Structures are given as structure tokens and as C-alpha cells.
Backbone:
DNA sequence: ATAATTTTTTAGATTTGTCTAAATTATTTT
DNA sequence: AAAATAATTTAGACAAATCTAAAAAATTAT
């Protein structure tokens, strides 16, 4: 079974919006995809006839098991391309997404599996998000937000939950990138800002608004 | 200016059909694209309003200078992807075309120029066809069809003008691939078949129908 | 619990690219 | 040069994905 670019975009967006439980609403999805709610309703009917989601009108919806499988395939393609663009073509971190949005819709299982091998079966993309394998399995880091780690423990940045240009600007300014090792030196309870230190450099402050999007893991001794 | 996948496919097909002069006909193009003539007429009107071709109804058509420029851009993308698939992902010669057909429509100038650099600015794709550079310039081998070369002169295969599975089957059977060095030992005037020898191997026969698609160049001493 | 508001769906239209069938123009044959 | 044939275009339809405007259902507020 293959799906149109449009169908794939809806499936992927629903996957990202639906957590482990709870329903996605029409308006949420229309905001995410920048379409009108009426268009969402049309596509939901279509995806329902294709048996990818549970949907009763006015009741919200979620992908079923088949739908999630399809979504993981799309995410696999997206993240492998992001890895390729970043690692091989030296695209900067914030440029990869837009191009990967297009590449992910190229239909060829063989292409993706060969690309995976060529890249060395990476398990995480340049944003630190896990890349599903051929079976749709995803590796998980035990990751923690820097707002929640103990003081003076050096950890490695492995995920950034907000990738707007504004956010990336702040990260670039403070030399934070995927894999950066940092420690929290102090927490200011007044505004929940954090004092961060990278290696032996001068410590600096991150606001709570920024800090809550930065996730770290224990340093990999593999 | 960007063009839809469909528009790009028409532009590319017209480019391939129109030689240095002479008109392309509606039926030719509809056969090439496997659409109905009526669909071709519709698209011609559209491409005419976009000023990519000269077209007066019932009179045939050809791309103008702008149209050719667009076509070369599409061909550049196609052939760079073919090179990537073959060289990096180890796709076999006959598998690259179909996937490249999809990849060529991804819109990102930066992607293509970075890919070009990553591949080392190749000038010929795995089929021996030239890859246009950023300015649309194409390198040309001085190539000759094996039906037209002198006897017992070793030359290098650099182009195959027919890439149907049937043709590729024959080539594979006879161990002919891009870069193969061969010589014509004898020409049989009865049916214009050729006796070919590769290195010190046992010579074999190629029919005229096959031979006329195989092109060679002088051996590169660079 | 009724009214007001918000969310979602329906109905009908639009765009792109395709099709069939019929009409028109060009070409070939006699 | 007229008739037959072939090529091309027009007219009208359809599917996919979107939209607007209006109707219906659900939620929130009073």
C-alpha cells in the first residue's frame, strides 16, 4: 500500500499530535497542517475508509495500529534523510527539515533501506530524535529535561523540543548543539532560570522558557 | 519559478524528443508520456502561457531558450541522483532510473548543488550521459556508435541509447557495461551484425538492432 | 437548563491533471 | 482534387485536494 503525499502528511501530523492516549481534534490538526478544518474532515473520512484510524464524527480521532505503522515508516524516511543531509551534505541543523519534508515522500523501500545501510544504521537524527528501524522499532534514550537534573552533573544534549529559528538562534549563540556536554551550576527559584556551564567556559543563564525544551542523557561510554 | 512534477515531466520529455531542430508532435509526446493526446494539448497550452515553448495549434512545438534551460535543470537533478544511487548506494545500473524519476522533482537548489559537490562534480551519469553543470553546460564525449568504428580498434563504452530491461538483459549477458573496453573484429554485411571482442575473451555476435544503441569513445588517458 | 460560543461537518465550488467522445484540421491515397 | 485516413483539438466529465459559507453538534457560560 502506498499513500499520497497529502495522506502521508496527515498521517504523520496525527502521529505527532496523538500522545500515548487521548484524542486529536479537527482544529488541532488543521492548525498543525495549516489547512481549513473542512479539509481535515474530508481527509479523515478518506483515512477511515483506508482503515488507518478510529474516527466517529464530532468525537476526535487517533491512528490505529496500522496507521501508527505507516506513520513510523514516514518518520523513518524523514529522519534518515535529515541524517544524510546533515552528516553527508553538511547542511546545518536548521536547514534539514524543509528538504527532508520533500524527500520523505519518495516511494522506494529499497532506497530507504540502502540509505540506512550507507549511513551506518543511525539510531538518532541530527535533532536527537530516534530513527525507527525497518520493523518500526525505535531506540529510546533515557532522557531528562535540564530543568530536572541535579546540579553539577555533566550530561549530553540529545534532544531539543522546539526547533523554531528563534530557539535555534539562542542555542547557536550559547554554542549548544546536539551532543554538547553541559552541567547546571545553579537554579534560580525566582524565575526558574538556570546557570549553565559548558566545559571550562564562562557560565551563562538560560530562561525557563528555553531550558524546558533542552533534554539531556547520561554520557555514552560505549 | 518552480514547476509541478507533471509540468517537469512534460518539459523533460519534450527536450528529449526535440533534436537540434524539427518539431515534436502531440502523438509522439503522448506516446512518450503514456497519456492521451488530449492531455498533451492541455499541457501545451499551459506551458505556452508560461513562455517555455513555441506552439501554434496543429503545427507541432519545441522548447524555446527558457524551456531548454528548465529542462537542463531537471536533467541535471535526474542524473546527479542516478550517480548517487549507483555510486554511493550501490544500486545496479538498471534500477537507478525509476528512483531518480522521483528524486529529480525535489525542489531545492541548495540540495542539488551540495549533492553535486559531495559526489565530486561528476560529468557523466552511470549510463554515460553528461550531467549539466549549474550553468546548464554539458560536457560532450566525442562518441561514435560501434556500427561506425574501424575494425580492431579498442574503444570504451560510454553510452547506451536504449535502456529497456530487454536491452539491459543482452548487455548483462555479454558483460558489457559502462566503461567496458571492446573492439569490433568483423562486420557481416548480410545483416549488419558485428563480431565483438572484450579483452582476450571469446568473441561474440551482436545484431544490428542491438549494436546501433551502443556508443563508444576513445580510451581516456587522463 | 437555557443561551451563547466554539467546534465540526456538510454542501457546493475551484484547481490541476487527467480522461472520452466528438469535431476539426492536416495528410495521404486514389 | 476529392475522398479516406490520421492527427490534433475542443467540449465536457472526473478524481484529488483544497476552499468558503452555512448548518449541525458539542461545549461553555450565565
Residues:
Amino acid at each position: 500500500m502506498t499513500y499520497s503525499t497529502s495522506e502521508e502528511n496527515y498521517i504523520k501530523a496525527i502521529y505527532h499530535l496523538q500522545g500515548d492516549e487521548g484524542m486529536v481534534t479537527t482544529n488541532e490538526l488543521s492548525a498543525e497542517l495549516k489547512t481549513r478544518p473542512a479539509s481535515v474532515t474530508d481527509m479523515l473520512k478518506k483515512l477511515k475508509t483506508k482503515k488507518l484510524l478510529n474516527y466517529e464524527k464530532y468525537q476526535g480521532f487517533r491512528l490505529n495500529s496500522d496507521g501508527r505503522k505507516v506513520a513510523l515508516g514516514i518518520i523513518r524516511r524523514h529522519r534518515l534523510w535529515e541524517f544524510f543531509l546533515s552528516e553527508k551534505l553538511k547542511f546545518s541543523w536548521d536547514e534539514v527539515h524543509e528538504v527532508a519534508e520533500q524527500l520523505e515522500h519518495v516511494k522506494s523501500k529499497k532506497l530507504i533501506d540502502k540509505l540506512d545501510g550507507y549511513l551506518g544504521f543511525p539510531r538518532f537524527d541530527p535533532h536527537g530524535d530516534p530513527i525507527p528501524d525497518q520493523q518500526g522499532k525505535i531506540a529510546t534514550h533515557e532522557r531528562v529535561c535540564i530543568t530536572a537534573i541535579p546540579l553539577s552533573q555533566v550530561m549530553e544534549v540529545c534532544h531539543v523540543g522546539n526547533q523554531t529559528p528563534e530557539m535555534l538562534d539562542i542555542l547557536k549563540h550559547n554554542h549548544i548543539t546536539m551532543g554538547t556536554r553541559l552541567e547546571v551550576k545553579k537554579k534560580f527559584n525566582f524565575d526558574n532560570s538556570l546557570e549553565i556551564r559548558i566545559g571550562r567556559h564562562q557560565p551563562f543563564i538560560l530562561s525557563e522558557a528555553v531550558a524546558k525544551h533542552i533534554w539531556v542523557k547520561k554520557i555514552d561510554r560505549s
Chain B touches chain A at residues 85, 88-91, 95, 98-99, 102-103, 106-108, 110-111, 114-115, 118 (CB under 8 Å). The beta strands of chain B are 53-55, 61-63, 144-145, 155-160, 181-188, 193-197, 204-206, 214-217. Chain B has a mean pLDDT of 93.
